Amino acid sequence: MRKLKVFLIIVCWSLIGIGYSHTGHSSTQSSSQHTAHSSQALSANSIIVKGLFAGRAVLEVNGQVHLLKEGKSTPEGITLLRATSKYAQIEHNGAISKLSLNNRVGANYAALQASDEPASVQLYSQQGGHFLTPGRINNRWVKFMVDTGATSVTLNSFTATELGIDFQTAPIVGVETAKGNTQAHQVVLSSVAVGDVLLTHVQALVIVGRFPQTILLGNSYLSRVNLRIENTTMTLQAKY
User: Fold this and answer.
1) Is 180 helix (H, G, I), strand (E, B) or coil?
2) Integer Cα distance of 34 and 31 in angstroms
3) Are residues 222 and 131 in the same domain?
4) Boundary of a domain, candidates 80, 114, 148
5) What CATH number has the domain bearing residue 213?
6) Single pTM value for the model
7) Element (H, E) at 153
8) What pLDDT is stored for residue 2 in this prediction?
9) pLDDT in the model for residue 116
10) Per residue in 65-100, pLDDT tens?
């Protein structure tokens, strides 16, 4: 078994914690590759956004109309990640695109439009200076605490089970915490999102036990976005 040092932040909802770090190898997929892949993947299908609602979208794919809820997919494998009244965020073969309706209203819409502005989200520090935020793992809603000292997104095994993450057969590493030695499973999450800033194939650690109680948003996610802190405000912005 490979021994890795982790100084784990043990976070309760009362926001009491101790910092940690993890030394491991991360496999990140280039955002520029995602952009190229996105164009190729979507061009293989004719996709038109026909309707947008909170949590749902109507997509016409190759002439067939589909009403999708967030997290659901068309037969072609196009998954609706997020939907608002202004845009739909979809994934196909690992490529993510943000699509909006044409300005016209009616039965006919122009070809899909992608937003040129990189997605961003602002977080505000709370008691103790911590940045807590709702987010999504594999399109399931969770609560994160931003931890710039953590190498990986980290969650406990009970939370992982609730989220349907298959971690038990994943590689095991030794973890040293403030409470002593324990074990963690190294997994790859299909997607991690804060607001509209969504990444796919994000490495994570699943700690056996009930800590950390709040999921730590570590550098396996943070290193792949632009992060800026001004006073009590943190801005996360997609790089592309």
Assistant:
1) strand
2) 5
3) yes
4) 114
5) 2.40.70.10
6) 0.63
7) strand 153-156
8) 43
9) 57
10) 889 988 888 998 888 888 888 888 888 877 778 888
Return the structure tokens found at 9.
Answer: 């932040």
Rounded CA gap, 108 and 48, in Å?
A: 9
Contact 34, 95 (CB under 8 A): yes
Per-residue tokens: 114? 């992608």
Residue 137: closest CA among 160, 106, 109: 160
> Are residue 104 and residue 206 in the same domain, yes or no?
no
41-62: burial string, b at 16+ Cβ within 10 Å, e else:
bbeeeebbbebbeeeebbbbbe
Provide the pLDDT for residue 104.
29
List the strands of the sheet with 56-61, edge to edge.
47-53, 56-61, 64-69
Q: Which residues contact 110 (CB under 8 A, 6 or more apart)?
A: 102, 104
CA distances from 109 to 16, 74, 131, 139 (A): 51, 19, 40, 28
